[in-house]
Amino acid sequence: MQAAYRKHYGLDAVRKSLAHFLVGKTFRMLASVTVLLLLARVLPVEQYAVYIAFQALIALLDVLTSIGVQKVLFRYLPELRATGNNRAAYRLLFYGMLFRLLVVSLLFLAALPLLPWVARVFNVEEWIWLLPWYLLVGYLRLGAFWLSQCLESLLWQKESQYSMAVGGAVAALVMVYLAVVGELTLERVVLAEGLGESVALSLLVLSWVRRWRQDQQRAVGDSGWWRENRQRAVRYGLWSYLLSQSSLLYGSAPNRLLAAHALPVSELAILGVADSFMNLARKWVPTRMLMSMVRPLAMARFAATGDFQDVTRLSDFVFRINLILLGLPVAILTVAGPELLAWITAGHYPEAGYLLMGFLLVLATQGMRDLLELMVQALEKNPILLWTNLLQSASLLIAVVLLPVVGLWGLVISNLAGTLAANAIVIARLRGLGYRLGWRLDLTAWIGLHCALSIAVGLAVEKGMGSPSMAVVCVVLTYAALLLLKPPLSRDETQVVTSLMRRRLVARPAEPKSTPSLGAVQD
């Protein structure tokens, strides 16, 4: 078992995967930023608002079609690989993806007769002819995303990241060309995205088959694993399905759809810009970007050792890195949000500046939520999450009440209140079951202090010099200097980060004392 763990999830395996992970994520980020800037700057406001509604519908269908299979794959693929049961892992991946593809295909077909009603409710009747085509794009996108996450669970970062990066690059390049020749319209955006998603999905399938054929140990393991663990896996999948449906009314898609129904097109477009940048940030902050590395590592390590503190230490470390990276844009947007968004969107959406700052604060609380879910999933205590998901969904009612009073800020307030309350309940339940989190709150407090001091410096410069650009520069320099003077990391965490940067990690899971643990409680 230890040999299989070291081979597939040891520190040396992580180091090798990390390079592909970072390169692929970087190119995917560049493609995503390119598309976002093009659409915000070039696409007419009315068409951009329709595009935002289309995206929200696909995200909602993603939740509705979350039947629990994907969560089962994320939970048990790392466990099977870490314990050397390759045959069962490959079978689970193949049949799991096949079953989900069948169910999702049927559900997407069932949605077609409802499109006229959907278009009427969300004020996109003028573009109803395009909606079925965007459903096809969404179908391809979800398939590629699911498969890429499964490959990431096996730490096949090269195959997963590069395939998605190439698909994103194809879509971005087509849109750049259309913008240059002055032909970037909503229907052509849908065509470009469909082409990119098709390329990504094709490359992912080919990479999956190639890695399977190259694995000389693919037949090693117990083919009867599913029979012995079927009840356990099905129970886990059913709870995962309930959890996904219980959070149906929380998040980006419900926010957009509520705004599409209740607000003018101009405000929906403002929300679309702020929410798109927030979703972009969500993809690249560690609690999401590194989740494809953190989840399999945590699950594999927990399967190999059974030590819950391994999961909490890793989660605490990732959460603080998350806050460090979010602290800088929050400070910048607090000081010069409207000016920055006016420059980015060619003067179309300056009002999105402060709104984006608010959503980034929500994102910080969601980062903690993601890591708490990881802990609960490792323990297979999914019932803990059910009631808190329902609480988060119910927070949308706060937004319904606040939208006429404070506008789009009602969404920020409701999302923030729902997530904070849900996180507090999960932490209390874990403690009640005897699972101590042991997070370094003292180190977390330093991040808040660094952010507050940077904001104070930026506001002082803005008031004294009247230059938003100079204020932003001072915020960046102050924040960086404070992080260097007092990094919010323990000594062991600093050693691990330094080793990763120098590419000198050595896999020693059998000798934990010689290898610093992420999130260790030493100063």
UniProtKB/TrEMBL annotation:
Subcellular location, record wording: Cell membrane
Organism superkingdom: Bacteria
Task: Decide whether keyword Transmembrane is in the record.
Answer: yes
Task: List the membrane topology term(s).
Answer: Multi-pass membrane protein
Principal place of residence: membrane
Q: Mind telling me which residue stretches traverse the membrane in this protein?
A: 21-42, 48-69, 90-115, 127-148, 160-182, 188-209, 323-346, 352-372, 384-403, 409-431, 443-461, 467-485
Instruction: Could you list this entry's UniProt keywords, alphabetically sorted.
Output: Cell membrane, Membrane, Transmembrane, Transmembrane helix
Q: Which GO terms describe its cellular component?
A: plasma membrane
Q: In this record, what's one Pfam family?
A: Polysacc_synt
Q: Which InterPro entries match?
A: Poly_Biosynth_Transport (IPR050833), Polysacc_synth (IPR002797)
Q: What is this protein called?
A: Oligosaccharide flippase family protein
Q: Can you name the source organism?
A: Thiorhodococcus minor
